[in-house]
C-alpha cells in the first residue's frame, strides 16, 4: 500500500528540512505533498533546494511534490489543494514543525493497513497520560480536551484527542468527504463529517513535543471558538 503524506507549510524555515528528512526516513512507499503558501521567510528557498536534491536522487519510494501558492490561504485550503494530487491508498496529515514524530506514522496507519479501520487519529492524551509543563501547554491541552469532549457529546463518539494533527484516512474515505475548510477548522470539519457518515475513528497513542507561539505556532484562541462553531454547524445543519 502507498502512503500520501500531506504537509501544509507556512513560514517554517527552522524545521522544514528536518521534518522532510524525518518523513523520508519512514520505511514505507510514499509520496509527500507539500503546500506552501507564500512564506515570507526562507521556507520557499529551502524547499527549492530540497526538491532539487530529491529529483537528483531519483528515489521512487519518496516522491515529493511541492505546490507553491502565491498568498496565504490557510491550513485547510492547503490540505484541500494537496488532496487533488493524492495517489496513495492512505493519507496522513503531517505538520511542518517538529511537534509530531514521523517515526510514529507507521504505528498510526497500522489499523488502516490491516483493514481494521478507515480513520485513525494519533492521540496525544493516550500517549502522554499527563498535560504539559508550561502554562501555555496546559491551556492548549485544555482547549483540545474540551473539543474532544464536545465531539463525543455531539456525535456520540469516544475520542480523546480531536485536534491532533496525526489524522490518517483511507484515501477513499477522505476523498468522499466534502470539505469547505480554509484554516484550522479542517480538524473539526473532517471529524464531524466522518462521524456523521457513521465511520468510526480509532485512536493510537502518540508522543507530542509542543512548541510555543514564539517558536512559530500559528493556531490560537480564535481557532478554538471557530472549532466549536464548526462542530455545532455540521451537527445541526448540512
Ligand atoms: N500552507 C499553509 N500552511 C499553514 C498555514 N497556517 C499554518 N500552516 C501550517 O500548518 C501546520 C500547523 O500549524 P501550527 O501553527 O503548528 O498549529 P498546530 O497547533 O500544530 O495546529 P494543528 O496541528 O492544525 O491543530 C504547520 O505546518 C504550519 O506551517 C497556511 O496558511 N498555509
Ligand atoms: Mg504544529
Automatic annotation (TrEMBL):
Source organism, top-level taxon: Bacteria
Keywords from the UniProt entry: Membrane, Transferase, Transmembrane, Transmembrane helix
Domain called Glycosyltransferase 2-like: residue spans: 4-175
GO molecular function per UniProt: transferase activity
Protein transport as UniProt keyword: no
Gene3D superfamilies for the chain: Spore Coat Polysaccharide Biosynthesis Protein SpsA, Chain A
Name of the protein: Glycosyl transferase
Lineage: Bacteria, Candidatus Ratteibacteria
Amino acid at each position: 500500500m502507498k502512503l500520501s503524506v500531506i504537509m501544509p507549510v507556512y513560514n517554517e524555515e527552522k524545521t522544514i528540512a528536518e521534518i522532510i528528512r524525518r518523513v523520508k526516513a519512514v520505511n514505507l512507499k510514499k509520496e509527500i505533498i507539500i503546500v506552501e503558501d507564500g512564506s515570507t521567510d526562507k521556507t520557499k528557498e529551502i524547499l527549492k533546494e530540497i526538491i532539487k536534491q530529491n529529483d537528483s536522487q531519483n528515489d521512487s519510494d519518496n516522491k515529493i511534490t511541492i505546490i507553491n501558492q502565491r498568498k496565504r490561504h490557510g491550513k485547510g485550503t492547503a490540505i484541500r489543494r494537496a488532496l487533488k494530487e493524492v495517489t496513495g491508498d492512505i493519507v496522513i496529515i503531517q505538520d511542518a514543525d517538529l511537534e509530531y514524530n514521523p517515526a510514529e506514522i507507521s504505528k498510526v496507519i497500522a489499523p488502516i493497513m490491516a483493514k481494521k479501520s478507515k480513520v485513525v487519529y494519533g492521540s496525544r492524551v493516550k500517549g502522554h497520560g499527563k498535560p504539559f509543563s508550561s502554562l501555555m501547554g496546559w491551556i492548549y491541552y485544555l482547549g483540545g480536551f474540551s473539543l474532544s469532549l464536545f465531539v463525543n457529546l455531539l456525535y456520540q463518539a469516544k475520542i480523546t484527542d480531536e485536534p491532533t494533527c496525526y489524522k490518517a484516512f483511507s484515501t477513499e474515505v477522505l476523498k468522499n468527504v466534502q470539505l469547505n475548510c480554509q484554516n484550522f477548522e479542517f480538524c473539526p470539519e473532517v471529524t464531524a463529517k466522518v462521524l456523521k457518515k457513521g465511520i468510526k475513528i480509532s485512536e493510537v497513542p502518540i508522543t507530542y513535543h509542543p512548541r510555543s507561539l514564539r517558536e512559530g505556532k500559528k493556531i490560537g484562541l480564535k481557532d478554538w471558538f471557530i472549532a466549536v462553531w464548526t462542530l455545532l454547524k455540521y451537527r445541526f445543519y448540512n
